[in-house]
Amino acid sequence: MTEESTPAELKLKGWNHVPNVPIEVSPFFTWPPDPVRMFKWISSRWLQLAENSILMVVALACWAWFQPSLETAKSLHWEWIGMIWIRNLILMFMVAGGLHWFFYSARRQGRRLKFDPRDLMLKGGQFTFGGQVRDNMFWTLSSGVGFWTAYEVLMFWGMANGWFPVLVWSADNAVWFILLFLLTPVWISFHFYWMHRALHWEPLYKLAHSLHHRNVNVGPWSGLSMHPVEHLAFFSSILIHCIAPAHPIHILFHMQHQSLTAATSHTGFENMLVKDRKRLALGTFHHQMHHRYFEVNYGNLEMPWDKWFGTFHDGTEEMHQRLKGRRSRRA
Predict the structure, then answer these.
(1) Cα–Cα distance, 329 to 133 (Å, whole number)
(2) Could you tell me the pLDDT band of residue 324, with boundaries at 50, 70 and 90?
(3) 276 by DSSP, 3-state: which?
(4) In a 3-state reduction of DSSP, which class is residue 273?
(5) pLDDT tens digit string along 186-223?
(6) What span, in angstroms and rounded, lies between the C-alpha atoms of 264 and 53?
(7) Is the pLDDT of residue 264 over 60?
(8) DSSP summary character for residue 161
(9) ω into 304 cis (within 30 of 0)
(10) Which residue, of 65, 104, 185, 286, has the greatest Cβ tally within 10 A?
(11) What is the pLDDT, as a whole number, of residue 7?
(12) 3-state helix, strand, coil in the chain (%, to 5)
């Protein structure tokens, strides 16, 4: 169904832009299997210009030129730890800062494909530093990049000292080596849903997650704007590699995927337009609805946890009326 052919009655009201609806989850968890849709799902994420394929290149470049050897990482030292921290700061500035400049400072795309009709908040008592962008940048660059770096240091230090298993590239394990990249977003999705649901438990929400939900209308710097307690939980998905063998490049891809797609997925725009053509899928309307409606779409589209537990919002007006009905019954 193309955007132009989407029936008007399906369109959700109150948004500047609504993408093709109903939103669909990964085809790998539906029955009967749909091989054509499965191939399209993989192709759109890995075989063309997309977040996953770009991050693969970024991880390879970091491994080749900006990564200390495991021999160096055997001992904790400020030189290699500082190098990782600076590298991560630069990556976050390039991605979140670049997207913010393109969409919000330079307004190179105007409001085309922007989900929320409102601008980001210049003021607001809920923000620690008085404005949404300043508040988001502080938490992203301090606690966010800090925990991102700390988890990478922990993994490389542990791998270097033989405490965590290391996967070595060879012809014998080439399939698993490549498959691990494909499975990483699925594992992150699994972990994110349950971590996120836990953070919506009232005590944890008040302590930590409410900081992230200061952002009802999100921008690129909102994605990693979290309380330190949430950062501790958010990045803990990497600990799977304390028992599951991985190469250091898998660690880089995993951590950069979590960190940098937090910025891209909160861009607030569906896609980047170049010469009026969609070139790079970015913000997800699925998660944008979570920030506005709060009690839907706790996970993401790689795994259908929300569908299985009845918290999925597919972006249609019909589904929104069901949500309003549930709220009315509770009230």
Answers:
(1) 37
(2) confident
(3) coil
(4) strand
(5) 999 999 999 999 999 999 999 999 999 999 999 999 99
(6) 14
(7) yes
(8) T
(9) no
(10) 185
(11) 61
(12) 60, 5, 35
Listing DSSP states for 291-320 in one string gives HHHSSS--S-TTS-HHHHTT----SBHHHH
**How many Å apart are CA 34 and CA 235, to the nearest integer?**
33
SS3 state at 111? coil
The vertex-28 CA angle with 244 and 15, nearest 5°, equals 110
The 3-class SS string of 168-220 reads CCCCCCHHHHHHHHHHHHHHHHHHHHHHHHHHCCHHHHHHHHHHHCCCCCCCH
Tokens of 326: 């549930």
DSSP H helix total and E strand total for the chain = 14, 2
What global pTM score does this model have? 0.95
State the Cα–Cα distance between residues 165 and 76, nearest whole angstrom.
19
CA distance 139 to 137: 6
CA quadruple 57, 60, 62, 64: dihedral sign: negative
Give tens-digit pLDDT for 158-168. 999 999 999 99
What is d(CA 250, CA 260) in angstroms, rounded to the nearest whole number? 15
Question: What is the distance between the alpha carbons of residues 313 and 297, in angstroms, rounded to a whole number?
Answer: 6
Residue 114 has φ and ψ, to the nearest 5°, of -85, 125
- Three-class DSSP category at 246: strand
Structure tokens at 248: 């250091």
- Using the predicted structure, report yes or no on whether residue 238 has a pLDDT greater than 60: yes
With tokens 């972006």, the residue in question is 315
Most confident of 117-126, 257-266, 314-323: 257-266
